[in-house]
């Protein structure tokens, strides 16, 4: 980004746009290639860089916990139980390391999406059909039950970047008592409150 700004400053916006158009032009169809996935969504001729593999727990970053569908796995009951070493209870407390860290890409949408199955995109907003019917169904469920929108999350990331999104999430879901994170599924802090179930 700094290089881009310096280029604009030194040579002007017109030259910068011409350079970018040439740089990101698909050699097959002439359309624009996505800078995140190196894929042309007009012909999907470019291989994806998102060939996900399981991420070792010690190497997982906050950004790795944002699933392609826009779910912040860092706020999920399964991840918070795992991260805080809560004892597993059948049907009540489960452990999950997050969608990307366990190489699932998206637990809800992947099996219905060729782009996710073939690792063509990192986030669903990169898809020309965004938001698709499956994402809208998932979004409606989370809006209704948990007052959280995957689509809003994705649009925020697309428009503002992942770093700003992570700061927004930290501020929005921070526990006022201990600075832990509040779970979206039950509204509890897994660091300072009793957790009997992911639902309560």
How does this model look, in words?
Helices cover 34% and strands 0% of the residues. By secondary structure, the chain is mostly helical. It has a domain at 57-173. The protein has helices at residues 2-11, 13-23, 77-83, 114-117, 133-146, 150-160, 162-173. It contains 7 helices and no strands.
Question: Can you describe this structure in just a few lines?
Answer:
Helices cover 34% and strands 0% of the residues. It is mainly α and 200 residues long. Helix 1 packs across helix 2 and helix 6 (150-160) packs across helix 7.
Give the overall shape.
elongated
Alpha-beta content class:
mainly alpha
Low-confidence stretches: 45-49
Q: Helical proportion?
A: 25-40%
Mean of residue pLDDT? 81
Query: What fraction of residues sit in β-strands?
Result: under 5%
Q: What is the number of beta strands?
A: 0
Radius of gyration: 19 Å
Question: In this structure, how is the largest beta sheet organized?
Answer: none
Calculate the terminal CA-CA distance, rounded to whole Å.
Answer: 44 Å
The helix/strand series, from N terminus to C terminus, equals HHHHHHH
Q: What is the count of helical runs?
A: 7
